[in-house]
Amino acid sequence: MQYADVTERFIAARYPRASVAVVAGSTARGERTTTSDIDLLLLGDALFEDEHKTSEAATHVFEGEVFEVFAYTANGFDEWAARGVADHRPVIATMLVEGIAVCDDGRLAELRRAWTAVLDAGPALSDHESAFRRYMVADALDDLRDATDPFERQVIASLLFQRTAELMLLRAGRWIATGKWWPRRLRSMSTERALGLSRPLLDGDYGLFATRVEEELNRAGGRVQDGFVR
């Protein structure tokens, strides 16, 4: 990896107690742009000077590179990774599994085996959560169809896209995402359905976009409104 040397120097200077270090994100995938930072996952039982501290998310500039650091003790990692799984966005577990190891005290392979099994199993969507998400999509969909102000339509459509994308991915047993990962995750699930949802949104055709959302809502089980207890 091109950035291994500067990463090793950064760890030695800022987190010398780290026993496992994994570079993730665009740097690990070889897809860096001019604004890319270096996503760095660090593990170590004696990582912090404060013995009661179990986690830290911090941004550092070092030798002209921006490091986005996610640092944990073993217990801290388990806690925060479990939270990500519960929220259907296992960011740090994915970093652990898919990133490139910079240093390893021997525990990384077993950690990767355990968390790979969790990631491969996919998200667990309960019936109540599925109903709640359909309720939220239906609510925003009605707001979009009623909106006449262009600014309001744009904001509601963006919110509706996110809610619909989350429902589509979770119903398909896929983890959800944020930002640029929305289109990537949707395309990996179904290029045709991703285009069907995105094309009218990009064209500003909110009527057709609403129709596509309704189709996805019906695919997921239909509207939830009357009598639904949140």
TrEMBL record:
<feature type="domain" description="Polymerase nucleotidyl transferase">
    <location>
        <begin position="13"/>
        <end position="49"/>
    </location>
</feature>
<dbReference type="InterPro" id="IPR043519">
    <property type="entry name" value="NT_sf"/>
</dbReference>
<dbReference type="GO" id="GO:0016779">
    <property type="term" value="F:nucleotidyltransferase activity"/>
</dbReference>
<dbReference type="InterPro" id="IPR002934">
    <property type="entry name" value="Polymerase_NTP_transf_dom"/>
</dbReference>
<protein>
    <recommendedName>
        <fullName>Polymerase nucleotidyl transferase domain-containing protein</fullName>
    </recommendedName>
</protein>
<dbReference type="Pfam" id="PF01909">
    <property type="entry name" value="NTP_transf_2"/>
</dbReference>
